[in-house]
Amino acid sequence: MDKLIEIMGSAREITDQVIGTDLLVTVKTGIINTAKAINETSNEQLRTDLKLKLHEHIEQHERIFSYMMEHGYYFPQTPQQQIHVLNETAETVLTLNKD
């Protein structure tokens, strides 16, 4: 039973990390695409609305980024630490697949 609890705990953390990473990438893409749309429109009302949306995306990015940092899922300023986290995640996934 302890092994099952250990595996389930690890799986939950991996899932949180994968979801967080996916959200972060999606929001980054939204920021880029919204900024491009702002530059492409000549309609002032649409441009104003897109600027508001851009600020929303930036705030979402900040919240997700903070969550990832707080939970030890993301270390953009220390590549060695980020590589360590990625290796640990890979080892956990390999262990889950063996059982």
From TrEMBL:
Gene3D superfamilies: 1.20.1260.10. It holds the Pfam family Coat_F. It is found in: Spore coat. It comes from the Bacteria. Keywords: Sporulation. Belongs to the CotF family. This is Spore coat protein.
